[in-house]
Each structure stands twice: as structure tokens, then as C-alpha cells.
């Protein structure tokens, strides 16, 4: 995370660095992302970046945190709008629809999410994914806990397994409709406009079959 010097920096300077870093890391990830390019685009000396961040990985994690907060803010507003007290799997279907729509409309956040998900440098991937997972779980864990309390899930449901599956499904649906090669099964490699919504319903139907107390539950007619 940033040093105290970052907090004292001019807001316009901070904004320029963040914008340049988001563009560079979104396009090239951590391994290929260039601090020289970031400094040049932000019109700052490269050395000043190290006054603000311990190293390149620290800057990368900070950018991931900013992007995650942006996505999280949108999704928390959507959660309130959708009413999370509804039956869990109906609510989850609408939430995932909104999730897919968000990344369709926000290519920079999609690029940053892809860069973090597909990062080849192990240490950088661990650092940045830990940031992203924290935001995911702080939102998803209470939803799953409340669903269990409402008996929308089986009493013996393995909620950790459900959360683990959601941690795979959310990033997949954020990226697969827009990045060829990630989904050869659900038709997301070359999707029609309707295909992401169909994929959402197929995935939620599987989760409902595994975790719902009502094994005959039908998710909007999709079996």
C-alpha cells in the first residue's frame, strides 16, 4: 500500500499516476507492465514512484484495490436494489446478470481483472489476488451466511465450498464473454447477445441443485 508521502502528494498528481498505472497494467499485466511508461504518461519522474510505493508489486496491488473498490461499490448498490432477502438463487441469478453487464460496459475494469486473474508472476498474482479475494469475500460471505440462516441453503450445506465456487464463477463470467479461449463449454467463446444470460442460469441451476434444500428448484425454467 502507498507510503505516507502518497497521501501528501498533489491530488492531480495522484490521479495521473493511477490513470497511467491502470492503463499500463490493464494492457500488459504486472510482468510486462512498465514503470517507465507509467511515469511518462503521468508526467512524473520514475524515481518518484518509489517515494509513493515500496516497489512495482506494491503499486500493482494498490491499483487492484482501487479497481476492486470501484466494482464493489457498484455491486453493493446493485445488491441493495435487487433485495438480497429474496430467495438466494433467484437473487444470485440477477446479481450475476448485473455483474456480466458491468464488465461489458467497463472495459478498463475488465482489463485489470483479466490481468490479475491471468498474471504469470506467482508473487505478484498472490499479492493482487489476495486484494481482490478480500473484496469478493467481504461481499459474498454475508450473502451466503444470510441465505443459510433463511434456510435457502441445505442445513448441512458446505458454505465454504459454495464460496469457493463463486470465487471461480464470478471472474469467469466477467471475462469469458470478452476473451476467447476461456470457455469452450457454455458458448461464451463466441457468444450471442443472449448467451451470457443463458450461461448464468445454467451455472446457478447447478449450484441450486447442489445447495438448495429444494432439489427440484427450477431457476427461471432453465434446467
From TrEMBL:
The keyword Heme does not apply. The lineage of its organism: Bacteria, Bacillati, Actinomycetota, Actinomycetes, Mycobacteriales. Keywords: DNA-binding. It comes from the Bacteria. Signal peptide: none annotated. This is Putative acrEF/envCD operon repressor. It comes from Mycobacterium basiliense. Residues 34-53 bind DNA. Residues 11-71 form the HTH tetR-type domain. InterPro entries: DNA-bd_HTH_TetR-type_CS, Homeodomain-like_sf, HTH-type_TetR-like_transc_reg, HTH_TetR, Tet_transcr_reg_TetR-rel_C_sf. GO terms for molecular function: DNA-binding transcription factor activity; transcription cis-regulatory region binding.
Amino acid at each position: 500500500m502507498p507510503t505516507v508521502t502518497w497521501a501528501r502528494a498533489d491530488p492531480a498528481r495522484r490521479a495521473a499516476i493511477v490513470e497511467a498505472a491502470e492503463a499500463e497494467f490493464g494492457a500488459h499485466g504486472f510482468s510486462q507492465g512498465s514503470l517507465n511508461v507509467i511515469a511518462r504518461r503521468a508526467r512524473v519522474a520514475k524515481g518518484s514512484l518509489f517515494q509513493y510505493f515500496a516497489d512495482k508489486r506494491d503499486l500493482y496491488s494498490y491499483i487492484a484495490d482501487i479497481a476492486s473498490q470501484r466494482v464493489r461499490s457498484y455491486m453493493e448498490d446493485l445488491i441493495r436494489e435487487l433485495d438480497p432477502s429474496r430467495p438466494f438463487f433467484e437473487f444470485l441469478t440477477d446479481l450475476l446478470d448485473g455483474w456480466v453487464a458491468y464488465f461489458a460496459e467497463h472495459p478498463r475494469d475488465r482489463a485489470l481483472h483479466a490481468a490479475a486473474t491471468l498474471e504469470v508472476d506467482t508473487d505478484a498474482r498472490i499479492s493482487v489476488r489476495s486484494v481482490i479475494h478480500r473484496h469478493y469475500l467481504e461481499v459474498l460471505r454475508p450473502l451466503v451466511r444470510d441465505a443459510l440462516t433463511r434456510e435457502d441453503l441445505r442445513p448441512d450445506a458446505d458454505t465454504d465450498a459454495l464460496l469457493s465456487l463463486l470465487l471461480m464463477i464470478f471472474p469467469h463470467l466477467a471475462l469469458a464473454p470478452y476473451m476467447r479461449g476461456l470457455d469452450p463449454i457454455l458458448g461464451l467463446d463466441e457468444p450471442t447477445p443472449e448467451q451470457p444470460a443463458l450461461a448464468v442460469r445454467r451455472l446457478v441451476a447447478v449450484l441450486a441443485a447442489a445447495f438448495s434444500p429444494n432439489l427440484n428448484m427450477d431457476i427461471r425454467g432453465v434446467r
